[in-house]
Amino acid sequence: MMHLNKAVKIGKLFHFGLKLKKAEDPLLTIKIYTHYKDEYPLHVQRLKLLFEALNLAEVIEEGWGVDYPRPFMPIKVYQLKILPKVSTMELKLYLKGMEYLGLERLADYDLEVRDRKISWVELAKSMGIKANSKFELAKKSREILWKKLPEGVKSKLEAIEEAILRNRGIEHGAKVEESTPVIC
User: Is residue 16 a part of any domain in this protein?
Assistant: First the structure.
């Protein structure tokens, strides 16, 4: 696969000399949300490790942007523009599996296709997974993801997750299991 890092121009992809229109743009956006601003590098590291381990996507661009969760409420959000190598729903399934550790929400990873967010309900329906809540879907998604990951990658991800928990003053183990889910 050709590396496209320098081939991407704002909102357009130049691939083999062809200029694609916005509607044909194959790039997806992952928006990372967390209340802990110093954790963003750890979340980016987790995602890049996941992408590489399962050959899911190439990160084309990353950086800070603005999102509006409510009208007139801008928030800074870290974004990754990616060129996926798997289906959108498969990618969303793995992202959902990375959001929680036990009942602790590590981050919220929104996946957008042409500025449209893929919802957890849409994901569950598309993948044929019965889930009554996004937490239940995240738990099932993590189980699916963990079965696919090599042991060495699992160890690296677990080490990063432990660093995130330490940053929040939580010890890995029982405290995580007993906590209330954090809704971002």
Answer: no
